[in-house]
Amino acid sequence: MRRRAAANLERMRRRRSVRAFSPEPVPWAVVEAAVAAAGTAPSGANMQPWTFVAVTDPALKRRIRAAAEEEERRNYDGRMSDEWLLALEPLGTDAEKPHLEDAPVVIVVFEQAYGLRAGGTRIKHYYVRESVGIAVGFLLQALHEAGLATLTHTPSPMGFLRDVLERPDNERAVVVIPIGYPAPGATVPEIAKKPLREYLVRR
What we know:
This protein has helices at residues 2-13, 28-38, 58-79, 82-88, 99-102, 128-145, 159-164; strands spanning 50-55, 105-112, 114-116, 122-124, 149-150, 171-180. By secondary structure, it is α+β, with helices and mostly antiparallel strands.
């Protein structure tokens, strides 16, 4: 048990967010298996309030990128506070989001604020945001275990994603995850994670 836990920790320590992707296709079976793993996540009252939209169509990815960059330019040009911009500085991010078009697959995760029965009546969902957050964590681990690079991208606001992807009114986009292989020569910023003692409390 200790060996398995230690081995998993070492694998996860090698996971990094990547912003430069190769257009090389990834096996669809791997995408399906990773999303299926995400679907095993626990959820409030087992409502499973999530939808994963895997975008592979180049035209759709282009539309997503254009809309995301429009919102991001507004963010960087005035909507973000100076403190926020300073926090982002070490990561080297800006309004340009080529990863949304370059990655062979872009998964947009939606939360279902409520469910819908066949007749159109609503089904109450519980702990939606928490449930979807857990499922996203499962998805990232599954993709990393499969050998794929990922990035969690949260353009704000994200309402355009529901329109572009033609999702129903009960769904709200939570995160955009480009997945694929790192581009040749891709680099990542030099960052550090907090030591365990700073976030594990034993009582």
